Amino acid sequence: TPFTRRRGSSPPLSSRENQSAAYMFDSQQEAKHLFEMMIHPVTPQKFFNELWEKKPLMVKRRNPNYNNGWFSTQELDRILREVGAFIFEAGFYGISQEHLNFTENIDVVTYENGKRETHNPVGRAYAPVLWDHFQNGCSVRLLNPQSYSRNVWKYLSVLQEYFGCFAGANVYLTPPGTQGFAPHYDDIEAFILQLEGKKRWRLYDPRNDAEKLARFSSGNFSEDDIGNPIFDVILEAGDLLYFPRGTIHQACHFASGCTLEDDHSLHITVSVSQLNSWGDLLQKVLPRALDIAIDEDVEFRQSLPRDYLRYMGVAFSDQVCPERHQFMRRIEQLMMKLLSYAPVDAGVDQMGVKFITDSLPPVLTRTESACSIHGNGERWDDERQCIAGGVELQPDTEVKLIRQGCLRLVSENDSVSIYHNLENSRTYHQRECRKLDVAAEVAPAVEYLLHTYPDFVSIDDLPLEDVTDKVGLAVTMYEQGLLLTKEPLVPLSDSECDESPVEM
Amino acid sequence: TPFTRRRGSSPPLSSRENQSAAYMFDSQQEAKHLFEMMIHPVTPQKFFNELWEKKPLMVKRRNPNYNNGWFSTQELDRILREVGAFIFEAGFYGISQEHLNFTENIDVVTYENGKRETHNPVGRAYAPVLWDHFQNGCSVRLLNPQSYSRNVWKYLSVLQEYFGCFAGANVYLTPPGTQGFAPHYDDIEAFILQLEGKKRWRLYDPRNDAEKLARFSSGNFSEDDIGNPIFDVILEAGDLLYFPRGTIHQACHFASGCTLEDDHSLHITVSVSQLNSWGDLLQKVLPRALDIAIDEDVEFRQSLPRDYLRYMGVAFSDQVCPERHQFMRRIEQLMMKLLSYAPVDAGVDQMGVKFITDSLPPVLTRTESACSIHGNGERWDDERQCIAGGVELQPDTEVKLIRQGCLRLVSENDSVSIYHNLENSRTYHQRECRKLDVAAEVAPAVEYLLHTYPDFVSIDDLPLEDVTDKVGLAVTMYEQGLLLTKEPLVPLSDSECDESPVEM
Amino acid sequence: TPFTRRRGSSPPLSSRENQSAAYMFDSQQEAKHLFEMMIHPVTPQKFFNELWEKKPLMVKRRNPNYNNGWFSTQELDRILREVGAFIFEAGFYGISQEHLNFTENIDVVTYENGKRETHNPVGRAYAPVLWDHFQNGCSVRLLNPQSYSRNVWKYLSVLQEYFGCFAGANVYLTPPGTQGFAPHYDDIEAFILQLEGKKRWRLYDPRNDAEKLARFSSGNFSEDDIGNPIFDVILEAGDLLYFPRGTIHQACHFASGCTLEDDHSLHITVSVSQLNSWGDLLQKVLPRALDIAIDEDVEFRQSLPRDYLRYMGVAFSDQVCPERHQFMRRIEQLMMKLLSYAPVDAGVDQMGVKFITDSLPPVLTRTESACSIHGNGERWDDERQCIAGGVELQPDTEVKLIRQGCLRLVSENDSVSIYHNLENSRTYHQRECRKLDVAAEVAPAVEYLLHTYPDFVSIDDLPLEDVTDKVGLAVTMYEQGLLLTKEPLVPLSDSECDESPVEM
Amino acid sequence: TPFTRRRGSSPPLSSRENQSAAYMFDSQQEAKHLFEMMIHPVTPQKFFNELWEKKPLMVKRRNPNYNNGWFSTQELDRILREVGAFIFEAGFYGISQEHLNFTENIDVVTYENGKRETHNPVGRAYAPVLWDHFQNGCSVRLLNPQSYSRNVWKYLSVLQEYFGCFAGANVYLTPPGTQGFAPHYDDIEAFILQLEGKKRWRLYDPRNDAEKLARFSSGNFSEDDIGNPIFDVILEAGDLLYFPRGTIHQACHFASGCTLEDDHSLHITVSVSQLNSWGDLLQKVLPRALDIAIDEDVEFRQSLPRDYLRYMGVAFSDQVCPERHQFMRRIEQLMMKLLSYAPVDAGVDQMGVKFITDSLPPVLTRTESACSIHGNGERWDDERQCIAGGVELQPDTEVKLIRQGCLRLVSENDSVSIYHNLENSRTYHQRECRKLDVAAEVAPAVEYLLHTYPDFVSIDDLPLEDVTDKVGLAVTMYEQGLLLTKEPLVPLSDSECDESPVEM
Predict the structure, then answer these.
(1) C412 has a chain D CB within 8 A of its CB
(2) What's the burial of D484, exposed, middle or buried (CB within 10 Å: 0-12/13-18/19+)?
(3) What's the CATH number of domain C2-89+97-272, 2.60.120.650, 3.40.50.720, 1.20.1050.10, 3.20.20.105?
(4) Which end of chain C is flanked by fewer CB atoms within 10 Å, N or C?
């Protein structure tokens, strides 16, 4: 199995760089393997049957390198020094993205005597300033490390396909002998990967049914609020801890009753399932269901009884009278009818578009880049001072989607749109996702590409009437970066300049 | 019966001024009588069983004065001259409200050759300018005549209690030989009272089921759109025409096939039931039902299946697979559960507050004024140059609500509020309705006043523990204008100045 | 002199009602007379030479009725009872304006032990509730009495023409033995007219030059802030007190050292000259002057010296160097040049439009009403059920403006606009003033009407080429209510209905 | 001279990379040298005396490499491929900035038959898509190349210090035989550096005085609008063309009468002096001058004459009367007085802050980086898994500002602020510039650093009382990246971990 295949690799994640040729032949498979590795040796089947949204899991690995490849304190140091730096060595040609700021991108905090304090300076987060704070006992929280770390970006972009929802992350670095955050619960399913050092975690049951699978994060609790822990463990480098949203948790580096070595701790929290519940879907479906019912069913448009204000209302809720009974029966009947008007599939598409909007763009392998517009096609030939390398999709060119989960096909009124995440920012919601309007007639061809994924298909096999339409759709999608070709397209003429069409 | 009592009076409505002492002993009864008179000789029972929201009704009266008292062309002329005039004779001491403006308050339009045109000048509607347009063939529409005509205000404020929803009106004056408006349907139940002259009306069935009891008014239709009339009648002064929302209608003053005398036409359209349907109530109830279910029921908070985006959605709606089936079953179960969380009474209270917000303030009789803060209490005694006339509510003072429908008692979170329309503007939605927050403990006393209406009750009978609380609530409501006393309160000392408390 | 003419009348203001035929033949004269009466026996010449914006003035009249006609406590009582009342006797046909609210329209306050407190209840100001507070020692402030009192409206609308700026007012009613407001200064020239009872006033010099003719009102001072009074007087009914803006003042009803009878006090404060200074005009002129200079003069468009940031700026202000000197010289030269670009007349027109926007609409006499669209022209003849009374302006009709100060003619870009206050609200700034765009060619005719005021002129004398244009302009202005005819226009045919043009 | 020193280098700009140790010892000198090189062999003195803002200049170089180092078509190709790419080789550790979008960052346009058309696709600018358009005859405009090209960034950040205002750039790439843009003029002083190929330029005088040194760019002209060219030249690689704002220009690649080789053309336009004129300064100074005058001088607060609206205004501008004369005289006097209130230095500081806001952050040499917080200080020692490298500023540490023009010291009310551009984005106005509030007492020390630049000074020499304050200010500025040390600070202890202060 793919999982076994990877098992020997030690550390498993970081070694995968070298497999770039084979990498990503199937984004769903890839996602599955990544998750299997994360929770190994627990199987996904067992995990989703017994633990998911039910109870915490800790996996002890006795292998401090098991989680290697995700992130390190050294990477944090380099990010602080090099991202947005005003000088750097060539290698990559362009200019780095803008620098990190305190508060916006990174926090330095203390938690002492039950009180959390933020110590963020104003402005740019220079490495020496950050390390000064760290040495003075501040914990560091790096928000959205996927914006700066290529590996975090890559892993999260893979995991999001597995979970069908946005996968986020934060990184926490704690100096020896301190505690970073007050007890609280979050609104996400949390996977804690301990990367360096050790940390003691204590988990507590949700305080009541309403806090189970909590929809919104809590404020900070005091020790008095939270009862006894159901879990009190030392997480060591290589270990994993999972707990459902609503689970109260606190982490300490040094606490009465536990002696940890004089060492820093670094972990990354991977989060999924925020606002991704049945209730969230119903919030999209129900108002539209009612709108449709009102449009289509005259019973929903009939006036309320003339005198209903005189027996309905909270002030009348204790009264027993036939009018109330009849009124409530009518409400019941109408709500039953509502079911048949519920646009569930359209609601799911709204969730799907939200997912595309939230999601990270894919990280491509060199092979993928070479087989797509990302790395192939016309380029400036500096020697000959002209454009060269032009390529063309042909009816027999074999193509597939670059990722199965990178687009959503949606019917809106009479038009059809492809929402895709190829132009998303690595920073959450910085840009709208790209929307590509296509003719309703080509929808089946896009669906065909979705259903045949991960296999390559000839452009000629697309279920469209006309070969021009087939190639036209393929070119449109290729130029948006959505299609991979099976082989790198061969330039029309490799040894000379492309002829300019206007010259013909 | 009250109805019989009024029957002999001719014209029935206008004569009621003189009965002010007895008038309004019971706003519900009063409302019923007014409506009975409007549709006489049809009975309300027959009307609501057979016609309401089903089919049109015309009542021919052969009595041109039957609708007198509502409005007249003469009243329109006086309104234009006197409202907002810069000079006027004493009588009423204060200053008139602001003048009428074209477009905002009054329209002049033509409808010729199937095309409607608006001819509104800019700015103030001076009477001569309006009559000029009228003589040139323009129809006149006066919007919200209740803002200027005391009788329209009074009748609408009574009708709104009967229908449990806002009652509005427009007045239409058409010169001889013209048609004022294109065929269309409206979003309200329409009662047309012909006041002067004659007019030919043609009604057409809704064009399809979706337009029955239409929720929103249509645009203008051409003759080709609407088929054959189901009703083609001449309405004469004193007659009534009713038709449900969605009924296409057009009125003409002169048309091929019908010869009307060379006379103007004046009618008032009374409208009810706008956005007052079961669907409107559900729009308030359902989102809150879902919020409550999500809060209270963990099943609504569970994550959607990891892979649902791969088999749900419009692109997959033709597929048959067990996952889809199971997904839809789950939606069904959750929607069934929703019923038990639906806050129907709270939703009705929202509708009730909306009604208070929309509604007109009451018109009071002189007796009512004398028995309330509106006409009784401290006044400036100009002769003695001091305050006189102070009155006090006592435990044995008998009181009742000034109208049953002028307030709504609502529980919001932990507090209780009385929304009332006593300070509403006569202009629709110009001000928020007044909200009076009271202690939760006094709610039963307010309910008691609602349930005992129209009888007077002693303040001492209010279901509160303490006599101070009883009088306190009564004073609060009295000072908001909400309570009537059975007899005008007698000033503490009629022949001298009130002593000032600060002097004691 | 006009002043003498009125002198015999006692009380002078209130008797003027009966002179309505002659009244307002010249709004400037009328304004002058009113002001002469206000400050009598001081003459305007003396007042503006010696006192205006310089020092306070008190006029003792020994005639308690001298200020009669402005306002009274009785009028306040009637306003509270009748404005917005839900019932009233006929007389005036229409409906009264909306009721008064606490805070928005009327305040009840106390000032005790140096601390001001506002006791405004929420919502409608019912008379008994207000008098209750008054009896408990609250002072009453009625804001903008011109919105409710016809006389205050009339006097202010006349005074505004005299001062060329908005004239406002507030009314203060104080119970015996209290003080209503803390010491402070205002941003307006204040004329205090004592209407009933007595009040002790103490005035204090501005504390420094910057507070002289203060542009903005002060906060409340304590006794320690303000030094010794320069004025300590008892104002009695009929008296006048004037003081310039910036003068600190306090009024008390009863204070140590002074014993006032046990009586209430009522006064009205008339205010003028708010934001109406040379500086206000320059604020309109200067930015446009600079815009014009930059457009027209290349010297203003030349770049600043390359290195000016290295010797100019506050950090360099102590340095002496030739570059600084030269830079400052250049600034000086440019500012001198600016003068020649200053659009002073256009700036004055902006001030003029602001005045029209701020100003009250005129109060008309019955004669004025009868000679204008306000009272003349087509009306509904209820007996004959038709329109009658149509009138027409003829070339030989003699006309004049209804007031000289009710309009402002302004050139804006290539168009010419007449701004007028005829449709202004009595409530400050409730509506934009009306703007009437006319052809640039007719501007001289409008100017002719301004310059010939208060004389009547034949329409035929308007300096326009074409008689059609002359009558056209006259009709346009007449229909906006701007023109008076010398005699009431005689209806075309008094004994029959107007023929409708469409019938011809 | 420095100029001579660099003259031998061929190509001069590109070779400077190697001089990084000496580079930037004085940003003013550096800026001067760069500009000298740009216009060589014309001297700055001659340029600013005879040409600047007066007439165009062309320098023929006969050296196609003279402008090398600024930009190339090859660099454009790499930017399109590598900026925002989803895959890239290590080298630089972080992640590249976001990709380029059409319209936002890059335009593709044609200009044919006098008509300009934009052909921008939607979304991301993939290189093959851009080159396709180029081959089809589109010109390419890259906006703000400084955001992507390190050299453009570096040169512009140097030039901005020379000109004391924002220096911007655009890059234009034109395919053979086409014209990219219609004739027009711009609002900036333009320096055209021809980088590759040739282009024919035609310049035309401003059409009138108002367009000289135009404040705003024009729309597109047709040939008929612009008369005969004053300049008709072929610009070849290595050449320079300068012209003042307001100069109408058009460039063509191939035109009747001129035959250019079949080659593309690439040039960069460097722009300065946008909205940086005396008029712009006065727009900041005058309103505040008037505010101050109104505050301080009672004459500005005196009321306008009561009757001024009756003789001032555009309608009265032709009248001759003493009141007008006197009014205008008064305006003159007040404007003369205004001069003495004009806060010229404060206005310059506002311009200075605007410059800091607009400006690019500096590009640092490796030496500069090593001698500042940008490259020195605490770092993560991955081997020892601890923080190492801590440094400390001492009283005898010698420091200087990192650039003279990177900060502006401003007094605002009672506080003193340092505005600096160290955290500015390379994208124009993407972020506010950083503002650092300091105590008023330390202002002289900051001024001292400004005046002693480019010399190093001991922290101990800062003109402050207390050595703690001296070091405190130095640390604050050092941690904002504003200070360079003469030598790289030596870590406290290089061979071991820094001791954590909290442990002590």
Answers:
(1) no
(2) buried
(3) 2.60.120.650
(4) C
List the structure tokens of A434. 């790209």
Contact C133, C68 (CB under 8 A): no
- Choose among C411, C432, C271, C279: nearest CA to C358: C432
* Nearest-by-Cβ selection for B306 from A162, A334, A411: A162
In the numeric block, the tokens 């003498």 are attached to C4
* Contact across the interface for A423 and D82, Cβ inside 8 Å: no
pLDDT tens-digit map of B210-230: 999 999 999 989 888 899 999
- The ranges assigned to domains in chain D are 2-272, 278-342, 347-503
- CATH code assigned to D347-503: 3.90.930.40
The more confident residue out of C182 and B233 is B233
State the sign of the Cα–Cα–Cα–Cα dihedral A310, A312, A315, A316. Answer: positive
Nearest Cβ partner of B302 from A213, A345, A409?
A213
Number of alpha helices (DSSP H) and beta strands (DSSP E) in chain B: 12, 19
- Cβ atoms A366, D87 nearer than 8 A: yes
Report the alpha-carbon distance of residue D314 to residue D324 in Å, rounded: 12
First to last CA, chain A: 55
In contact, B315 and A442? CB cutoff 8 Å: no
The per-residue pLDDT for A442 is 93
Cβ A426 vs Cβ A349: under 8 Å: no
- How do residues A207-225 score in pLDDT, each as one tens digit? 999 999 999 999 989 888 8
The class level of CATH for D2-272 reads mainly beta
Half-sphere CA count of A504, side-chain side, radius 13 A: 6
Contact present, C57 and C233 (Cβ < 8 Å): no
Q: How far is B15 from chain C (nearest CA, A)?
A: 15
Q: Which of B49, B50, B277, B299 is nearest to A331 (CA)?
A: B277
CATH 3.30.420.40 assigned to domain A286-345? The reply is no
Q: How many other CB atoms are found less than 10 A from the CB of residue B458?
A: 15
Residue B8 has pLDDT above 50, yes or no: no
Neighbouring CB atoms inside 10 A of C504's CB total 5
Cβ neighbours of residue B246 closer than 8 Å, sequence gap 6 or more: B185, B206, B211, B212, B213, B214
Sequence-distant (≥ 6) Cβ neighbours of residue B258 within 8 angstroms: B200, B234, B252
Map A49-115 to HEC letters.
Answer: HHHCCCCCEEECCCCCCCCCCCCCHHHHHHHHHHCCCCCCCCCCCCCECCCCEECCCEEEEEEECCE
Q: Is-contact A83 A96, C-beta < 8 A?
A: yes
Q: Do B300 and A282 touch (CB under 8 A)?
A: yes
Residue B5 CB-density burial (10 A; 0-12 exposed, 13-18 middle, 19+ buried): exposed
Task: Please state, in angstroms and rounded to a whole number, the distance separating the CA atoms of residues B28 and C13.
Answer: 51
Query: For C359-503, CATH number?
Result: 3.90.930.40
Helix, coil or strand: residue B324: helix
pLDDT tens column, A419-438? 999 999 888 888 888 999 99
Both tokens assigned to B18? 């003189």
Residue D372 CA to residue D389 CA, distance in Å, equals 13
Q: How does DSSP classify residue B124?
A: B
Mutate one of B158, B188, B278, B334 to test the A interface: name it (highest A CB count within 10 A): B278
**Residues of B (359-398) whose Cβ lies below 8 Å from C:** 361-366, 368-369, 373-380, 382, 385, 387, 389-391
Distance CA D362, CA A87 (A): 10
ipTM of predicted assembly, 2 dp: 0.86
Q: D131 and A97: CB-CB below 8 Å? A: no
Q: How many helices (H) and strands (E) does chain C have?
A: 12, 19
Read off the pLDDT of each residue in D386-409 and give the average, rounded to a whole number: 93
